[in-house]
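[recover] target loaded
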């Protein structure tokens, strides 16, 4: 186990060297300060309170004093030079203590406005093993709200760019042996080539390293303090022997997924093989951080109509060729719902309403507006019993499994079109398409269940009529509906569904899900607008790589 224990630091040397802000030379942990025996914190108790933006001189002086106090191993003094001393002081202390940092040179760069970049070249020593460690960070100087003093704006990234509020820098024996994750062909999945896999490989290491073989090494890591975010190794002092762990990732599909989401600031995509449930790709932008594709909890928008359409067919309320009303607007218990740009379809079929994503057709055919009043629980039951949404998925890494809670009033109508309190991840929505293509739900998985004898979630197969109906409607959407533009170059057999989800009055999140042959995928682009505009091209790129 990683001990995280503090070790004695003898003869430690920190230095702040001359840089772009006019620093003198400091060797502060040995008490040498260029002739001055202390690092002074300027008292401004008698000075009038200053207002307005910080001045260049204030930026230079405050940054110098903070870095000097940090280098001197004086966490309380460093903390008092920030706008959050209660948090900053202990964090600075932990950096040196639990991090086992024994030497460091801090070199500031030229200020850019209120920001001062700097580099740290450190040495970490643990049980006789030492290794150099270097990185860059920056600090920002702000004016204190109550005192008017210039202070360092405290955030953990000042100490290290990957450090979070709940995180701690630690050095010790690794918690587990490292693992070499390999793709479905047995080739290594490197985080340099596939950066989105970094948190997933870290999670696999936590869960399966003991089963994959290998020996433990000595490492420095950032302990995240959260189960949802794996620890991040920042330095390996003594390499252990990694074990080998086989995953279901397809290298071609993964490479396409990484490239596709990179075009957007915040996006996620997941791909599944419908006939087996094997996960073929997972990618996020930004890469290497939070695994939104598996852990996201977002309203899926009109991609939810795959489930709602299934419920309607199962309840005998609609058939693909049957007539349904698609007015421009409907009211559900006093709450208005309308279609995009208030379009309507006169005398249209259920397939036409699906392919054009008619909101009102999916609301008017249900509840108090229809001949058959569907209870508020039926949508959730359909999601669980036919698509596995709401059941615990044991993928092999941590996931959020989707929720379709019981609702009432206008919220029930909203849930039929993927709004309200419904939440899903890209993996959940990809599974909707995979279920439609396969004719039944197969729980997605990343590593074989034989590795730990875990039980997969199970759902009832779709009836042949319902499965055929879903594929017919999704094909119509992909060839002559809202998904047609994005799916134009995707090989047949294919099907798709677009979606957009409104979030707190912001630009809608863009959703898209579809399948081609034996590959299904779904993507979400935050604030991407219409489903076919942003998420659609991401999914199409992934499907073409399958």
């Amino acid at each position: 186990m990683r001990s995280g224990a503090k070790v004695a630091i003898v003869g430690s040397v920190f230095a702040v060297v001359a840089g772009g802000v006019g620093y003198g030379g400091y060797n502060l942990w040995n008490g040498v300060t260029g002739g001055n025996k202390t690092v002074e914190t300027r008292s401004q108790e008698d000075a009038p309170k200053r207002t307005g933006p910080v001045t260049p001189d204030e930026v230079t002086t405050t940054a110098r004093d903070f870095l000097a106090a940090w280098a001197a191993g004086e966490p309380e003094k460093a903390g008092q030079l920030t706008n959050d001393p209660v948090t900053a002081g202990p964090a600075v202390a932990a950096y040196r203590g639990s991090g086992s940092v024994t030497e460091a040179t801090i070199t500031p760069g030229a200020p850019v406005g209120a920001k001062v970049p700097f580099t740290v070249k450190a040495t970490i020593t643990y049980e006789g093993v030492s290794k150099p460690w270097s990185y860059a960070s920056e600090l920002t100087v702000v004016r204190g709200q109550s005192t008017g003093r210039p202070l360092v704006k405290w955030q953990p990234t000042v100490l290290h760019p990957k450090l979070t509020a709940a995180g701690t820098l630690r050095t010790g024996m690794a918690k587990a042996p490292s693992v070499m994750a390999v793709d479905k062909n047995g080739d290594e999945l490197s985080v340099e080539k596939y950066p989105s896999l970094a948190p997933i490989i870290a999670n696999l290491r936590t869960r399966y390293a003991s089963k994959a073989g290998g020996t433990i090494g000595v490492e420095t890591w950032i302990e995240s303090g959260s189960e949802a975010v794996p620890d991040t190794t920042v330095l390996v002092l003594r390499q252990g022997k990694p074990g080998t762990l086989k995953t279901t990732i397809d290298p071609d599909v993964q490479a396409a997924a990484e490239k596709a989401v990179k075009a957007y600031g915040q996006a996620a995509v997941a791909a599944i093989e419908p006939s087996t449930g094997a996960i073929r790709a997972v990618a996020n932008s930004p890469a290497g951080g939070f695994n939104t594709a598996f852990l996201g909890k977002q309203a899926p928008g009109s991609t939810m109509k795959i489930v709602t359409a299934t419920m309607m067919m199962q309840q005998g309320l609609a058939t693909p060729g049957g007539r349904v009303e698609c007015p421009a607007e409907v009211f559900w218990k006093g709450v208005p719902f309308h279609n995009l740009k208030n379009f309507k379809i006169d005398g249209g079929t259920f397939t036409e309403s699906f392919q054009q994503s008619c909101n009102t057709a999916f609301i008017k055919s249900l509840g108090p507006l229809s001949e058959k009043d569907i209870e508020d629980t039926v949508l959730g039951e359909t999601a669980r019993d036919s698509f596995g949404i709401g059941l615990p998925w044991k993928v092999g890494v941590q996931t959020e499994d989707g929720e379709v809670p019981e609702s009432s009033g206008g919220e029930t109508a909203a849930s039929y079109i993927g709004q309200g309190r419904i939440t899903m991840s890209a993996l959940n929505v990809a599974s909707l398409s995979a279920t439609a293509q396969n004719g039944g739900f197969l729980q997605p998985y990343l590593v074989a269940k034989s590795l730990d004898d875990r039980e997969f979630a199970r759902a009832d197969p779709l009836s042949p009529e319902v499965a055929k109906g879903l594929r017919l409607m999704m094909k119509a959407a992909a060839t002559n509906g809202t998904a047609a533009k994005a799916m134009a170059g995707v090989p047949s057999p294919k099907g798709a569904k677009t979606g957009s989800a409104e979030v707190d009055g912001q630009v809608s999140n863009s959703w898209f899900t579809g399948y081609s042959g034996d590959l299904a995928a779904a993507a979400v682009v935050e604030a991407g607008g219409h489903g076919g505009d942003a998420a659609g091209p991401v999914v199409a790129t992934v499907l073409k790589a399958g």
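[recover] notes: The two ends are 40 Å apart (CA to CA).
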